[in-house]
């Protein structure tokens, strides 16, 4: 690596190690990590776009009677990643992100208090089925496999993409065989890991050396692996990659690979989904939806309308 990249990698490593040591999430659901920034805190917008949201009686009326009476739901949130999805502010305890704003806004539309608990990404979906949580957020993409056990209410369209160092090929990945022989870094328990594992055999079929998949629980460690040359490519969310490379020297967003609808996650057969769909659509009508996307720079992820369990794109 060049001296400049060595310095950047060292700063990233120091920041991530410091945060990992000092900032264990309060419920044991992960750690607070430095997502990007060459040793500085990510620039996370804090504009309040939710406080003014009003309750919509029609949407709230779709909730089960016992939920309306109780007035609360338990929400599991994955906050171990980076903006724009969900991250910690510099105070180390306040969560912020697109997922956070959408959940809070929907809660206001429905007249509910969402009791948010931080949990690890890979633990949330199984816990929904057990009844531990009422719903979950974590930029969960709607896939055929997940739809077998989970119900979704969509609120954005994101997907899968790639990032590399400035001095690294390829220029675009349209087929996973272009990754053969390379080391790909991604997050554990995600659609990215599943996609890579599902297609790994294609390299051997093409007479090429298979790619190696390295998974990380923390976004900070994932980016350090790329900066230090231990990984050649990062596969992650389109929005997350674009946000991260804007704040890191020497990296570039490669391209989108596959689009996925993203939604609130519920146990299969949940009777909460009609109310949540109505609430998201209400946010679109009153302008809150567009304000949230503008705040996080994700206008390209807008959907026309919220849907329950749309046909999976991947």
Task: Fill in the keyword field for this structure.
36% helix; 314 residues
Q: How much is the radius of gyration in Å?
A: 19 Å
Assign the structural class, choosing from mainly alpha, mainly beta, alpha/beta, alpha+beta, or little secondary structure: alpha/beta
**Elements, N to C (H/E):** HHHEEEHEHEHEEHHEHEHEHH
Kindly report the average pLDDT value: 86
Count of extended strands:
10
Biggest pleated sheet: 5 strands, mixed
The number of helical segments is 12
Which blocks of ≥5 consecutive residues have pLDDT under 50? 1-41
Strand content of the residues, in percent? 15-25%
Residues in helices, as a percent range? 25-40%
Biggest sheet strand order reads 8-7-9-6-10
Distance between the termini: 36 Å
- Quick one: overall form? globular
Give a brief description.
By secondary structure, the protein is α/β, with parallel strands linked by helices.
Structural features, described:
The protein has 314 residues and is of the alpha/beta class. 36% of the residues lie in helices and 21% in strands. The strands form three sheets. It has a five-stranded mixed sheet with strand order 8-7-9-6-10, with helices on both faces. It has a three-stranded parallel sheet with strand order 4-1-5, sandwiched between helices. A two-stranded antiparallel ribbon has the order 2-3. A hairpin with a 6-residue loop joins β2 and β3 (95-96). The longest helix has 20 residues, at 3-22. 47% of the residues are buried. Mean pLDDT is 86; it is low at 1-41.
